[in-house]
Amino acid sequence: MDVSEPTAEQLQTRTANCKTHGDFESRAITLPTLGNKPGKPAKVIWSKCPACARETAEREATAKRTEQEQARQQRIEDRLNRAGIPKRFRECSFENYVADSDAKRHALSTAREFAENFPEHARRGSTLVFAGNVGTGKVHLAMSIAQHIIGQGHSAFFATAREIVLMLRARWDDRTAPSELEVLRMLTKVSLLVIDEIGIQFNTDAERDQLFGVIDGRYRELMPTIVTANLSRKALQQTIGERSYSRLREEGNWVPFDWEDFRGQKRIGR
């Protein structure tokens, strides 16, 4: 490209050539220089190929969008890690849950409604109890809800009932572990708590009292909770106690999963 000093008549535009895009109209850009002596001409540069400039801008915009998407994905991954969601369940979604019966479609629509209207359920402190046979997709739908609301900027935490008891007792064996009060506050304040396999391990009054502390704390703060259990209503009530059961029942929705175990089948959600 010719970069020789232009004459006065050439200071507006001139034809230049780009090796990639061919001829283009180049425009003069005058740059005032501080301290110029009278009569000394200002510095003039010529605009470069506009097609090259557009391509560069598009590449930079694409790179920026990619960087932003990677950062968004990392934030979601960090939230999933903090939420305690196991990697096995991170592919769970409403879309890949196989609802091939009226009962399964009811469970799916209930879960989807809970996720899509989470702010309203958060205002009311709603509870979902997914109860029924082993391997019927209870955790799949619970994880679908949790991941949906995490994507909307809410917090969630997933743990088995046994893990919650162990978290509350951790200070007994490790003085550096969070105190029972600190754990209880975390479990109470998280936007959504999912308690899996509730009722399996509660063989002592102490364990029932600890679980009641969590359920009651969320009940008083109007914080939504999802519970999964392989028990009937009566068995769950007897296992966790009347106080906990009463709080789950208020503003709660019991969703039965009473079909056969389909965990061994290939598709996710079955």
Automatic annotation (TrEMBL):
This is DNA replication protein DnaC. It comes from Verminephrobacter aporrectodeae subsp. tuberculatae. PANTHER family: ATP-BINDING PROTEIN RV3427C IN INSERTION SEQUENCE-RELATED (PTHR30050:SF4), CHROMOSOMAL REPLICATION INITIATOR PROTEIN DNAA (PTHR30050). Gene3D superfamilies: P-loop containing nucleotide triphosphate hydrolases. Pfam families: IstB_IS21. Signal peptide: none annotated. The lineage of its organism: Bacteria, Pseudomonadati, Pseudomonadota, Betaproteobacteria, Burkholderiales. Residues 70-242 form the IstB-like ATP-binding domain.
